[in-house]
Amino acid sequence: MTLSPLPRLIIEPLVRNALLEDLGLAGDITSAAVIPADHRSVVVMAAREPGVIAGLDAAELAFQLVDPAIVMKRHVQDGAAVAPGDIIATIEGPSRGLLTAERTALNFLGHLSGIASVTAKIAAAIAGTKASVACTRKTTPGLRALEKYAVRAGGGMNHRFALYDAVLIKDNHIAVAGGVRDAIHRARQGVGHLVKIEVEVDTLAQLREVMDEGVDAVLLDNMTPEQLREAVGIVAGRAITEASGRINPQTAAAIAATGIDLISVGWLTHSAPVLDIGLDFQSQS
Questions:
Q1: Measured between alpha carbons, how far is 271 from 285 in angstroms, rounded to an integer?
Q2: Considering the chain, what is the average pLDDT of its residues?
């Protein structure tokens, strides 16, 4: 799958807000006091541990918004695997601007690369099966577009982006609606013909009831591999099958081997550790 960059229109407000949060009402008072205005430097961003890179556009924009005179040369692209010591980018420009933007740039790059890296681990664990790994809506408020992009950079897929782009009927919807059949019927009457309908089930009996109604996808929640294998047989290709619940790189292979279509993992975005990336000064003038 080709990794398409996010439009600047999406990224810029997020980076701008992060910089404003850091600069406050007075700017970078440390750099302004300590560094001469005409001082220039060359710095490199390098990986300190193995992983997959994502977020270079956000990092570069952080430097450019602080000082348009800063130039960043990329040595890898988003989606690239890196080893400790690999140079990710070389950045040159006024030293004050480099120091002011450093933390914001590294925050975005480290966080998004961390998401891409754990996604790649799951993708590697299920390689050779028909299953794909997907993220969920369990994202950092305000950063969903970037975090879902990072999942794609790591070789994963995106589930729905928000409440508006697909119907996902969960247990609480079913409880309030008075039953799964009523919930499905109301959903079908309430949305357009291009909107997909998915229903969450946690028992095989529920799955059989849902399949009698005809839906586009079923979310099989917290089922064992044995139950998932039986569920795939019940669905028999009539809907997309999605497994969810406590999935990690150690359990993903057995789940994917059941014939499931999709594995959704919330912690890809809400708990991925930051990839350790450093910024070091190479030369100054």
A1: 41
A2: 97
Annotated catalytic residue: which of 60, 102, 200, 261? 200
Residue 100, CA atoms < 13 Å, CB-side half-sphere: 31
CB 59 within 8 A of CB 106: yes
Burial class (CB in 10 A: 0-12, 13-18, 19+), 94: buried
To the query of whether residue 103 is one of the catalytic residues in this protein, the response is yes
Provide the pairing of β-strand 81-82 with 217-221: unpaired
One-letter amino acid at 97 equals: G
Single out the catalytic residue among 16, 48, 170, 229.
170
| Distance of alpha carbon 228 from alpha carbon 223, whole angstroms | 6
Backbone angles phi, psi at 92, to 5 degrees: -135, 140
pLDDT tens, residue by residue, 191-226: 999 999 999 999 999 999 999 999 999 999 999 999
Q: List the catalytic residue out of 22, 67, 92, 221.
A: 221
Dist CA 43 CA 101 (whole Å) = 12
Q: Which of 103, 121, 181, 196 is catalytic?
A: 103
For the chain, how far is it from start to end, CA to CA, in angstroms? 43
Residues 8-20 pLDDT 10s = 999 999 999 999 9
Q: Note the pTM of the prediction, 2 decimals.
A: 0.96
H or E element that contains 224:
none
Alpha carbons 126 and 248: distance in angstroms, whole number? 11
Catalytic residue among 138, 144, 160, 196: 138
Is 138 noted as a catalytic residue in this protein? Answer: yes
Is 121 known to be catalytic? no
56-98 confidence digits (pLDDT tens): 999 999 999 999 999 999 999 999 999 999 999 999 999 999 9
Is 200 annotated in the active site? yes
> Any idea which residue has 């995106």 for tokens?
158
